[in-house]
Each structure stands twice: as structure tokens, then as C-alpha cells.
Amino acid sequence: MELIYYMHNRGVPRDALSPERLQFRDLTLVFGGELRYLIDNREILLRPGDAVYIREGEERARKALENCDYISFNFRPDERETLPELPVYIPDGMTNEIRLLLSACDEIRDRMTEDADRLALILECILRQIAVNLLPRQFSPLTLRIRNYIAEHLHETITLRDVGKAAFFSPAYCSSVFRRETGMSIVDYAIDEKMKEAKKLIIEGLPLKRVAEMLGFSDYNYFSRTFKKRFSYSPLQYRNSLL
Predict the structure, then answer these.
(1) Which pLDDT belongs to residue 243?
(2) What order do you get walking across the sheet with 17-21 strand by strand?
(3) Average pLDDT of span 127-148
């Protein structure tokens, strides 16, 4: 794989990209703010956590809205290289695994001499991890029961004790099985689902403190810190970006 360009703008405004037909591939992932794309006359609005994957031959134009924080890779695969097939628009494509890989890219760029080969290797891992994340997963009945419980109780405080009681197993056993099958803890999964729901409620125009209360957070400051840790963007900043 030939890495042509890597950039993490870190919220620094960038000029809009005029329409052009690409001679390379573009993978862009958004940490915060909004990024507006026009791909072959199809408009796509990326919000925190979303990604876009554009192949060579497609026409691309891009405009970053204020305070948008994103990472872009431009690259060409080798002729003998088989990369996974990905959709153009990947909502919530930035999972925890992807975030760790992206932080490694920043580490290489910031603390070492520029190393295109290392960045290209991590980029390949990112593409393959996105493909794995998009596959439908087969979970055990216990994990499905836990996921369903969390989905049905997003607007409450969720504890491991409550999860174990609902699943008819000990909290420790539930935690062990869930982490083995999903790669994350029950608590982290519940928080992720609550934060996704928070984004939807903010888009609907609910007051921020009301959103926190509806999702079982009695302390708004804790809710705000959790939201920012998940999306690298505070609830207030997210609401303002929508406006």
C-alpha cells in the first residue's frame, strides 16, 4: 500500500476541497464537529464517530464546518493487495479499536520521524477492523440478553448487579462472557449506547440537562465529561455544531 497523505487537523480550519475525480482512495474519520461531503453528487454529512471511504474514480468535494476535528488518509493499494470492500458512508465507524489505532498514527507522526510504511501498516489494520466491525456477529443467548436489557433500560442507571439479576447469572460471569464475545466491558458498552442515544436526543432539540437526566445521569458535569471522552466533543459543542 502506498500512503500518499496523512492529516489530523485537530480542529484547525481547512480550506474546502473543490470537486475532483480521485486518482487514489480516501478514508476520513470524524472525531468532532461536522464534515460535509459531496461524492458523485450524493451529499453525506459526517458527525462525530462517522467515517467515509471513497474509491479512485469517484468525484469528491468536501467542506469542514467550524471546529471539525478529523483524520484523513489518501492512499493507493498495491496491485496484488486485496483490501476489504467497505461502504462509502460508515456511521459510527470509529469504534474503540479504531480510536486506539488512530492514536498510534498520531504517536508516530508527533514523536517520531515520519514513517509512511508504519502509517500504511496501521491504515491497513484500520480498514480490516472496520470490515470486521461491519460483519453481523453471532452472540450467545446470554450476551444477547444483556444487550437487550441495556437497550430497554438506557433511561435508567444500569448496574452490573441489575444486569446479573435480569440475566439470571452472577455479575462476574456476565462480565466475563460479555467481554469475551464483544471485546468490551458491560459498563463501557452501556455508556457507549447511552452516548449514542444522547446524540439523538440532542438532535431532537432537548435541553442538555434534560438529556442527562433522561439517560440516568444525576450529575450533568459527569455526563458532559463522559460525552466528551466518547466523542472528543462536549454536548454543548455538539449542539452548537448542529445549529
Answers:
(1) 64
(2) 17-21, 59-64, 35-39, 42-46
(3) 88
